[in-house]
Write a structure and sequence with these properties.
Helix content: under 10%
Number of helices: 3
Order of helices and strands: EHEEEEHEEEEEEEHEEEE
CATH superfamily of the largest domain: Trypsin-like serine proteases
Strand order of the largest sheet: 11-12-13-16-15-14
Radius of gyration: 16 Å
Distance between the termini: 32 Å
Strand content: 35-45%
Shape: globular
Length: 250
């Protein structure tokens, strides 16, 4: 099963029930350890009060990059672009079942103009999978910095599944994942992989998973990519695919 680091699928079903327009779907951290949200004050849980199947309505991750700007994956929020007020971003919440932190409503959604889907093994692959949410109440920061993938490893963050097929986790986790060579990723995913807007990371020991979409992959503390898609979670031979952050002026 192709893993689109999803969660927005269920939200789409909810919005369909409300008669609202919908689009494509939205992954959790396999391996790693629990961490406190205080260590990552710019990290947000993207969700909706309408998404009743997850604590806090969370289905994706986001990153505060300015007082009212949150970076996330386009496929996470494409379904809600005509009703952005259905979404919230929650900061400072390590455990989704708690009331900690602050939740802010979204007032606008900007999706990368070149965002599109192609096919791999019968499922959608996301290109230029980047979006910026404008939130109603500016936050004081700190704000995350943008970087680029380099070196041998990065760190992924999220509240998602800790194993493929198990979405019960609701605690923030982090894991160190190896960066995978472009040539290897292209061999695995064929023409579905585009090195201009994607890169790969992960192993059977550590990977992102369901409900982690849109969350950051950090290199040297900077956001080098966003969790986007993969074939399963931590499957042998199938690393996770992350969106490169090439430009944010859209």
């Amino acid at each position: 099963m192709l893993h689109t680091r999803r969660g927005a699928v269920a939200l789409a079903a909810t919005l369909i029930g409300l008669g609202l327009p919908t689009a494509a779907p939205a992954t959790a951290i396999v391996g790693g350890n629990t961490v406190g949200a205080a260590a990552y004050p710019w990290l947000g849980a993207v969700g909706s009060p309408l998404f009743l199947t997850r604590p806090s309505g969370q289905f994706c991750g986001g990153t505060l990059i300015g007082p009212d700007r949150v970076l996330t994956a386009a496929h996470c929020v494409e379904v809600a672009q005509f009703l952005p007020q259905a979404l919230t971003v929650t900061f400072g919440r390590s455990e989704l079942n708690s009331d900690d932190g602050v939740s802010v409503r979204v007032k606008d959604i900007h999706i990368h103009p070149d965002f599109r889907n192609t096919d791999f093994d019968g499922d959608s692959v996301h290109h230029n999978d980047v979006a910026i949410l404008t939130i109603e109440r500016p936050q004081p920061g700190p704000f995350a910095e943008i970087g680029a993938p380099h070196g041998d490893s990065g760190k992924v963050l999220g509240w998602g599944a800790t194993a493929e097929g198990d979405s019960s986790n609701s605690v923030l986790r982090a894991a160190t994942v190896p960066l995978v060579a472009e040539e290897t990723c292209a061999t695995v995913y064929g023409t579905a992989f585009d090195r201009h807007d994607m890169f790969c990371a992960g192993s059977t020991a550590a990977d992102s998973g369901e409900f982690d979409s849109g969350g950051p992959l950090l290199v040297d503390g900077r956001v080098a990519g966003l969790t986007s898609w993969a074939k399963g979670s931590a499957r042998p031979g199938y690393p996770g695919v992350y969106s490169r952050i090439t430009e944010l002026n859209f």
